[in-house]
Amino acid sequence: MRWCVSIGAVLVAGAMAGGDVASMAATGPKAQFVQSKQDPVVDVELVLAVDVSYSMDMDELAIQREGYAQAIVSKEFLTALKSGPTGKIAVTYFEWAASSDQKLIIPWRVIDGPESADAVASEIMKTPIRRASRTSISGAIYYAMPLFDENALHGLRRVIDISGDGPNNNGGPVTVARDEAVAKGIVINGLPIMAKELSYSTMDIENLDLYYEDCVIGGAGSFVVPIKERDKFKEAIRTKLVLEVAGLMPEPRAIPVANTMKEPRVNCLIGEKIWQDRWGR
Questions:
Q1: Which pLDDT score is estimated for 160?
Q2: What is the three-state SS of the chain?
């Protein structure tokens, strides 16, 4: 089951202030895992895949970067971290644009408390902000998948966290990449950014949140946290990371995507179509 999460509904101030992370997901489908001979050394292996395409303005890119850094050192994140069986996670962070344009910013790092969280946040902030052309969500997924096999860690869950402000318009179809990742047991969650007015020049689409729900995210308990107001940017990132780290699902304040849905509500090739119509290639 996939979910669309309301930022205000999920980030319940009272629960978070008291550190009661588990109360956020009493009914959430926390995945069941078969214990292997090798005990897991982290609760989750988390890939942060961050959009830096030209459709993102410099202010958005700066807020996005700060949002991830601040989320990782937040009280809510550190509380979620300690709620897991091992109390630690592994995280890697890369930026993406075209199908051939991914830049690894932070190789795999283990976060097990405030000091390691501070170190990762500092690494995120010290990297110069960049922008690049095209939007290839499929390229980001294909780049992310082998990263899980390149570390020496073993986690209970594998999650790709994708943020972006537009549909796939370069590389292979996003649904094919999504399905390949899900077949490997990887969960994909989405952070669709809808905080600016739609623009033809940047090939924005309406209902980007529905596009992410139907075409991008996948796997047991996958969800989206849409950002529809610029001042909610950092809060949304924090909300999403807390849920992913704790392996939780929101309670009924979230809106489930119907399992009986036969066709996507948004054309999963809409980005490619817009690019073709505009450039004729």
A1: 98
A2: CCEECCHHHHCCHHHHHCCCHHHHHCCCCCCCCCCCCCCCCEEEEEEEEEECECCCCHHHHHHHHHHHHHHHCCHHHHHHHCCCCCCCEEEEEEEECCCCCEEEEEEEEEECCHHHHHHHHHHHHHCCCCCECCCCHHHHHHHHHHHHHCCCCCEEEEEEEEEECCCCCCCCCHHHHHHHHHHCCCEEEEEEECCCCCCCCCCCCCCHHHHHHHHHCECCCCEECCECCHHHHHHHHHHHHHHHHHCCCCCCCCEECCCCCCCCCCCCCHHHHHHHHHHCC
Predicted pLDDT at 59:
86
Split the chain (281 residues) into runs of 10 and give each run's mean pLDDT: 57 41 41 47 96 88 93 97 94 96 96 97 93 95 96 93 94 97 97 81 83 96 92 92 82 42 81 82 58
